[in-house]
Design goal:
41% strand; 13% helix; mainly beta; 4 helices; Immunoglobulin-like
Length: 381
């Protein structure tokens, strides 16, 4: 019996030793970050033959421990489009590094971007062929995993496009939980009639993912149900009426390879099975200094668009959830009104006739302009 006790005692001692040894092996790894004083020029945009050409110029920034995620816009540059016949089409500076113009570009021609920055450096893109995008057959949607999946169908009957890229802009209408005709007047600590409605609002946002499609491995140039945006169940974006405007671009093979590499670098990272980040080179170079790195790819062609609307009534009946709206009855006393309403934590929406007190709720439940705009978009039904 004593031998068994000694045996088990030694066994636990050895196990404890290995546990302690393993715990000591877990040392936090803080990878060194190589900082560079160089701010590379980033060129983003598309030479659009049937709409607004928009070229965005910015600079890369250093990754440091005190990084504030500041965006470095390249302003004051001269930007123009050029064709192979030496015709130039200057763009206008629109602020924040954006340069825009509206030109009619011709199919069959090749175009490039020419840039001259304030430090007198010159940059040009390669001449790229004008690519006409085929029409979008359908922007549709279906229910998937409880949410809404929006997709695009398209095809090129001439089998010439092969490579596609999409962007989208979402717009949705939403309502406050309570309808308010009242607002707080801080000048004299009273509640007065509201002149600007805050019940019905709209909000928009642009896509941030790189959306690509290719029919290179198919017998026909057909794209079927390419996924665009996914909206999870109970999302407020489809609480009333929702819309997505999809823009489709035709790419050449070089442009498709560039955007595929960019997608791998920015989205498909995080596990050991994902592609490793690489230096993605586009079709833009510095004429003044050929050794300088420039980031970006500029294509040319006619883009096409299609819009879809989705109504809340088209979704399952339990899509909208009851919002978490804290309510409070505020006495009609100046000190109480100032306490609850001065910092917009609560917003009045109705006066109780019996007591004169004001029914109120948290701001986002009464005033939709806290997260949106009450100006109706021109395209809204």
């Amino acid at each position: 019996m004593k031998m068994n006790k000694k045996y088990f005692s030694n066994k636990w001692l050895i196990a404890g030793f290995f546990i302690l040894l393993l715990s000591k092996c877990k040392v936090p790894y803080d990878p060194p970050i190589k900082s560079s004083a160089t701010h590379y020029l980033v060129v983003e945009g598309y030479m659009n033959g049937n709409g607004v050409t928009s070229i965005k110029l910015s600079r890369t920034r250093n990754i440091t421990s005190g990084d504030t995620a500041a965006y470095i816009n390249e302003t004051g540059a001269h930007v123009e489009l050029q064709d192979q016949a030496n015709n130039s089409y200057p763009l206008n500076e629109a602020g924040n590094g954006n340069y825009t113009g509206n030109f009619y570009l011709y199919a069959g021609n090749s175009y490039r971007v020419h840039i001259k920055t304030t430090d007198n450096k010159e940059y040009v893109s390669d001449f790229v062929p004008f690519k006409q995008s085929p029409a979008i057959d359908q922007v549709g949607w279906n229910l998937k995993d409880g949410g809404v999946q929006i997709f695009v169908n398209t095809h090129d009957p001439e089998n010439k496009t092969i490579f596609y890229r999409w962007q989208y802009q979402e717009t949705w209408e939403f309502h406050s939980q309570y309808y308010s005709t009242l607002k707080y007047n801080a000048l004299d600590t009273t509640v007065i009639p509201r002149t600007t409605p805050v019940y019905q609002c709209w909000r928009s946002q642009n896509s941030t993912s790189i959306l690509l499609g290719s029919s290179a491995k198919l017998k026909e140039d057909v794209i079927n149900q390419a996924p665009m945006v996914y909206i999870p169940d109970h999302d407020k974006r489809i609480s009333v009426l929702y819309s997505t405007l999809v823009t489709q671009y035709a790419l050449d093979s070089s442009g498709y390879n560039y955007w595929t590499a960019m997608k791998a670098n920015t989205e498909n990272v995080g596990s050991i099975f994902d592609p490793q980040p690489n230096m993605t080179r586009g079709n833009i170079r510095c004429v003044s200094d050929p050794s300088e790195t420039v980031i970006g790819y500029i294509g040319a062609g006619n883009s096409v668009q299609q819009r879809i609307f989705i109504r809340n009534a088209d979704l399952p009946a339990d899509w909208n959830l009851v919002p978490d709206c804290t309510e409070y009855l505020v006495p009609n006393i100046p000190d109480s009104l100032a306490f609850y309403f001065s910092n917009s934590s609560y917003v009045p929406y109705l006066q109780d006739r019996a007591t004169g007190a004001y029914l109120s709720a948290t701001g986002h439940c009464v005033d939709c302009t806290l997260t949106g705009s009450n100006v109706k978009p021109t395209f809204w039904p």
